[in-house]
Amino acid sequence: MAHKLPVSVLVVVHTAELDVLLLERASRPGYWQSVTGSLDRADEPLEAAAARELEEETGIAAGEGRLSPWNVSNTFEIYPQWRHRFLPGTVHNTEHVFGFRLAHRIGVRLAPEEHVAFEWLPWTLAAERCFSWSNRDAIRMLGEGAVLS
Predict the structure, then answer these.
(1) Strands, E, within the chain: which ranges?
(2) What's the rounded Cα separation, in Å, for the pair 137 and 125?
(3) pTM score > 0.90 for this model?
(4) Domain assignments of the chain as residue spans, ordered by start
(5) Between β-strands 35-38 and 7-15, what pairing exists: parallel, antiparallel or unpaired?
(6) CATH code for 7-143?
(7) Which of 81, 91, 134, 138 has the fewest beta carbons closer than 10 A?
């Protein structure tokens, strides 16, 4: 098994009206999040990783909306139970935040090995539902107009 890279993307999928798409993790029922995932290789461009993860996790192609880097990154400690996926000694991950704007809510095709449900919520409710502080903060930045997407 190849080790995961400690560099990831977070993609906040939202409509022009600031409804936000959340996905429920298959491995952690009750844990809701935006699209997220690690780079496949060290030279994979961040925007390409964001577009790939978007399509893998939701079935939504990047061309259906506008993918925008927010020039925000967060470094956080990797949960101990997930560290075995990374090279030995790796304890931190750096996550790069993107927004993906759609004109309106659209249907989603989940990757069943990763997610079991999806929900479109107003940004305030979506932020409250996220288990991840970095995801919650990104959604709040969107709703409060701190980023353009």
Answers:
(1) 7-15, 19-25, 32-33, 35-38, 66-77, 92-102, 115-122
(2) 13
(3) yes
(4) 7-143
(5) antiparallel
(6) 3.90.79.10
(7) 81
